[in-house]
Each structure stands twice: as structure tokens, then as C-alpha cells.
Amino acid sequence: MFRMTIAAALLATAAPALAETHVVTPGDGAQERLQEALIIAQPGDEIVLEAGRYAMSDGLSLDVEGVTLRGAGMDGTVLDFTGQQGAGEGLLVTSDNVTLRDFALENPKGDGVKSKGADNIVYHRIRVTWTRGPHPENGAYGIYPVESTGILVDGVKVTGASDAGIYVGQSDRITVRNSIAEANVAGIEIENSRNALVAHNIATRNTGGILVFDLPSLPVMGGGNVIIENNLVVANDTPNFAPPGNIVAGVRRGTGIMVMANEKVLIENNILSGNPTAPVMVIAYVQPYDDARYNPLPREVVVGPNSYDGGGYDPQLDGAEMLLAAFGGELPPVLWDGLGSLAAVEGTAGWSLNLTEAGKGLGAAQPGPLSVKAPAAAFDRSGIGAPAALEARLGG
Amino acid sequence: MKPATALLAAASLALAGSVAARAAFFQPVAAVGAVNDDAVVEGMPRLLSQFGFFTDGAGQAPAARVTPYRLNTPLYSDGAEKLRFVYLPEGKRMEANGDGLIDFPVGTALIKTFAFGEGSKRRLIETRVLLHRESGWVALPYVWNAEQSDAALAIAGARMPVVTPAGEAISYRVPNKNQCKECHGLDDAVIPIGPKARNLSGEWLAANLGEVPAGADRLAVWEKRSAVGADAVARAYLDVNCAHCHRPGATASNSGLDLRWEQDDPHALGVMKRPVAAGRGAGGLLFDVVPGEPDQSILLHRMLSNDPGVAMPELGKSSIDREGTEAVRRWIEEMPR
User: Fold this and answer.
1) Residue B175 within any structural domain of the chain
2) Are residues B228 and B206 in the same domain?
3) Signal: is it a keyword of this entry (chain B) (predicted)?
4) Residue A10 pLDDT > 50
5) Of B39, B12, B43, which Cα lies nearest the Cα of B28?
6) Among A256, A278, B192, B337, which is most buried by a count of CB atoms within 10 Å?
7) A21 contacts chain B (CB < 8 A)
């Protein structure tokens, strides 16, 4: 790691293992004072952001291991990036074992908090809000850990992201829970990642609630081993406001939980209500690609028991009128394109496009009722979720 | 006060954002004409003069063993004039590493001063130093005072108004110490970016390394780029201005875009590549580079923006590089469809 080696050495000699607290207050020079604290902190130190509104002119960054950045609550300490003039995100974290908790970011120009190559990170009670609500010029991601192992996102709230509120990319050992994603294009998105647990969240008023994607041509490939359970996925009915060109710009308004090109995904014990295109959608990747490592199909996806209410009544799909007529006014809750492999517990109502080839469009679709087998065995949960050690940082 | 304590005190003073000179904490300035090797290998001197890199700071007159160099194709920094120097300690030498980054011994300092204005109106804005220590490279930013007599450590960076050579009034950003790593970071270490043999003149290499390695001096000399094909000019520009982040192991690795000179896979270079996490940066466009269609190419769109969250590069740019964007436009225009 790159840090102030000499200062670290001196401190180690003088006062070994004595964690310090750096207190930062709002007011003049907050940008420089906070950034200085983020630089001079030593591993194990805590930076305390006192309550108040902090006017930020530039992005912040943290590159010291083991630091805790703590505010006075997600409504008490607000980092206001409305006047941000530079950098691609509000806060960038590039060191391991960092804890971020109890503060808010408002109106960052790009992403909210990005952590890259930052293993064992905890996001606890962080709020990222674009205050004008859904808008294509809002930043892309609210909470954005990428290329990391060990991620615990707990009790965060993201509103207004023009891509995904909570986005975990190219990572491993992930838990996203007890969080609220509201009025984003995608509420929660797990992309090209493995061993992710998404549980006890509320995803509402997004275009799509919870997405699990695997995309080609990324450094980290092969998403899978994902559990989506005990989430409230309600009224995801905001028209898609993503700038065209982004992968989520193709997400249909009213998508509850969507799985695209992944393996071993379990969806169970969720409450899905008021998702007018499809409460659950399981599909193959639809674009052309050139990547020998890539499998565009959803494989071994399991739909367990969920509670469905008011789904598929206003689908944003080609031929919606005919489909609605054919299915009696409302599409059944689970939509599968027929590609890859899907299992569902007995009694799961659904429909299939019965496609036979990926990436060929809907021309060959022969919609019909879903007919798949029940899961053959219990879902293997081993190794899924953030390492238990991250829990210990949530106290206080 | 023990030297170590004094050093910490000096460092914390600088960290506290104090700009006022506090003579009591100064370390003795090195004798004129000699670089203070101790300052290169440890500590964080509060003032640039403590290194002794210049016999005349305002005039940027280098001390002994401090050698100026230029890059064939430079990194655009709002049109700033950039004065580059390398300091090598007594008895040490640098060595070529193919056409890539020169191998510099521990004790080396790379020094880069950013200036705006010409002749008597030239103002030095900041000097960034990269110090090669036993523990690796350390990057520190120094901001020049109004009198131009010295520059002070500005670990949290700074903003200041400047007028670019194009006549544009901008808020110029001095990066903070962490932001240094955003461009200089590779596989979790800090490394120099600029001094690659392929981007240095054969003459300079021969004089300072005693050899001109194969592939050296290959990137276009920017002022003479009209004599070179659009492809070579643009690829040199992208290598120098973008590839320190857009390559495996660096800040933008997760984008999958690799703009290094040595990359020859069109898809990795962005041709018909869809963006991954560009968000609104994509500007409604579908692909990074669409051959023959510069205005349909996200890469050029982002270079032409000044809006944080859209603008590329993310750091060190407050104004658009007209020459660079023109070079990239030509490259895309002439690309076979």
C-alpha cells in the first residue's frame, strides 16, 4: 500500500497500536480538512464527521487500511456535492478493511461512494440521495463496490441513481441487506459477482427492483451463487430514466427481480407486489458478444416460494395487449425466456417465451405457461455472503 | 527536539494546511547546487526548497545531477507548460526496460513543475515530485507561493484560478496526495507514468542512459504530429493521456478498456465495445468507439466534456484539449468501418 511510510514508522515506535480519532467539523475549508484527515489517518484510526452540512468542491478519497469514517447519522452528517467541480465520484476508497457509517452524500456529480480493490469493506447506514429525484443527469451508482472480496452493505439508502442505487460489480463474498433502494433505475444490482446474499431489503419505485447480471468482456467473469431472499420488492414502476446506451437502459419499467446470464441463483421468500411488467424475470443476455469465456444463459436458477401480488398487469413488452388477452388480463408472475435452466417450486405461476436460441430476439417466441421442474435438492448456501468478521464492525 | 520529532511537527504543520512560513520548523536548506538526498528518501518536507532541486526556483534552474527532459507526446494538463526533471543520486544510474518505463534506482526524484503564462508573465503553479524510496514511490504535491520564492506541501490539494493558453479562465485543480495514486497506481503500487523509452528522444536516452533501446522514441513528437499518420498520433495520445488508468491493474481496469500503445485488440481499444459503468457519461451513445463516427463514440464524447461525472480524464483536466480531441476525432474518422 502507498502511504506515509515515515510517519507510520515514527508512530509505531512512539506509540504502538494506539488508534487515534480525528474530528472534522463543517464550515470553512471542510473540503481540505476532511481530505487531510483521510490522508493523515493511520490504520485503525477513526475519522469522526460531526453533525452538519459539508459543502464539497471536489471528490474525496481514502487510501489507508482499517480506517473508520463515521458521521452523526445519515440525516445528521451530510456531505453536499452539489457544487462538486471535479472527480468521478463523491468518495473513492482504495484500501482494505474500511468502515463507512452514519453519514450521507447528496448530489454527487458522478457516483456516490466507489470502493475499488477495497477488500472487507463495510457500508453501514450510508445515505446517497440525488435530491431532484429521478433524472438522467444524476450520477450512475450510489453505493459502488467493485473488484473487491468481502463486502457488507447494511442499512443504506439510495435514491435517484441514473443506473443502480446499490451496485456490486466484479466482486466476491457480498451481503446487501436491510437497505432501501428507491427511485433509481435499478434498485440493487449484482453484476459479474459471486457468493452474494441480498436479503431483507426494500426496493421500491425503481424501474427494476433487484437485478443479477453477468456481462461479457469484463476483467472478472462468471457471476453466480447468489441468494435473493426476504426482500420487499414493491411498486417498481418508475419509467426508465437511464441515459441510453447503459445496460440498465434496457430494463423494462415494472421489473421486480431480474436474473440475466448467471448460474445458481435462488429467489425465495420475497414479497413481490405491484411490479407491472414481471415480478420475476429470468433471461439470457440478448446482445451480440465476442468473449469465449462468456455464457449468456441463466443456469440452475431456482424460484422458491415467494409472495406475488399484482404483477404483470401492465407489461412493457412487445405485443403486451395480445399477451394480456391470452393470459386473462394479467401475466403470471414468473417470466422466463426458455433459455438455460430454471427450476421452480410447485405452484409457481409463470409463463415462458420458449425461445430456443440466445441473442436472436423475440421473433421465435412461442409464449406459453411455465412448465419447469421443482428444485431437485436444497440450494447450496455455503460460502455465500460477506465474511462473518465484518459483522463485528456494526456495533455502536 | 529530535530530528524525527521535528520532521513530524513540520509534516503536521503542513497537514494542518498552514501556508505561513514558520522558520522555526525549517530544516536547513541544502547547500546551493546540491540535492538533499535525505529529503528524497524519507520524510515529507514542508517546502520544495528543502529538496534543493533548483538553484533558482522561480527560474527553474536545476541543481547538479538534476536533468531536464521532455516527452514526445505529453499529458494534457489544461495547457500548462510542464517542466520535467529527473534527479539521480551520486553513483546511481537509470536503465532502459525495453520501450517501457525507465528503471530508476532508489533515491531518484522525478520533478514536474506546472506553469501558465509566458516570459515575464510566467507563473509557477505547482510542482509535483515522485520520490523513489526503499518502500516504493511516494508522490507529493507542492503549491508555489505568490512571490514565487518557494512552494509548500499541499497534501489535500488546492484549487486556483488560472487562464489557460487558449484564453479560458478555469479553476485549476492541484490533485491531493491520494489522487496522485489514481493516475500513478498500478497493482497497488505507485509508479511513474511519463518517462517511457518509447516517449523519449533517442538523443536524450543516448546521453543519459548510454543506449537507445529498441522501440524507443516511437511516439510522435506532438508539435510534428502532422507528419505522422492519424492512427499513430491518436494511439500515442491515448497511451499517454488515458492508459495509466485504462489498463489492467490500474484505476479504470474494471471498465475493460485498455488504451495502451501495445494493445492491438480493437475491442479492448473500445471499438464497438459497450460501456460497463459509464452511467450518464455515455451521453446516450452505445459504443466507446464507432469506426468512422467520432460523434457516435463515447470515448470522444467524454473527452469533449468538462462536466464531472462525464469528463475524461476524471482528474487533472478543467478544460478541453482541442488538439488532443482533434487527433482522436481524425483517428476515429479514418478508421475502416
Assistant:
1) yes
2) no
3) yes
4) no
5) B39
6) A256
7) no
User: Per this entry, what is the length of chain B?
Assistant: 337
Domain count, chain A: 1
Is the pTM higher than 0.90?
A: no
Q: Which run of H or of E encompasses B326? A: helix B322-334
Q: Which residues contact B244 (CB under 8 A, 6 or more apart)?
A: B183, B184, B186, B193, B250, B251
**How far does chain B reach from its first CA to its final CA, in angstroms?**
70
> B201 and B136, same structural domain?
yes
**Structural domain contains residue A28:** no
Number of domains in chain B: 2
Q: How confident is the model at residue B32 (pLDDT cuts 50, 70, 90)?
A: low
Cα A36 to Cα A23, A176, B178, distances in angstroms: 11, 30, 10
Contact A219 B314 (CB under 8 A): no
- Domain range for residue B147? 32-219
The answer to whether residues A351 and A334 touch, using CB atoms and an 8 Å cutoff, is: yes
How high is the ipTM of this complex? 0.73
Question: In this predicted model, what pLDDT tens digit does every residue of B152-180 receive, in sequence order?
Answer: 999 988 889 999 999 999 999 998 888 88
What DSSP string describes A239-278?
A: PP-SPTTSGGGGPPTTEEEEEES-EEEEEES-EEEEESSE
Contact B309 A108 (CB under 8 A): yes
Q: What residues make up the domain containing A268?
A: 111-391
Q: Same domain for B124 and B95?
A: yes
Amino acid at B322: R
> In the listed set B169, B187, B219, which residue is the last one of a domain according to the structure?
B219
Q: Choose the closest CB to A35 out of B16, B176, B307.
A: B176
**A6 — pLDDT class (breaks 50, 70, 90):** very low
Measured between CB atoms, does A73 come within 8 Å of chain B? no
User: Do B271 and B151 fall within a single domain?
Assistant: no
- Asked whether the beta carbons of residue B173 and residue A1 sit closer than 8 angstroms, the reply is no
Residue B9's pLDDT is: 43
Q: At what angle do helices B322-334 and B230-241 cross, to 10 degrees?
A: 130
Of B219, B234, B251, the residue at which a domain comes to its end is B219
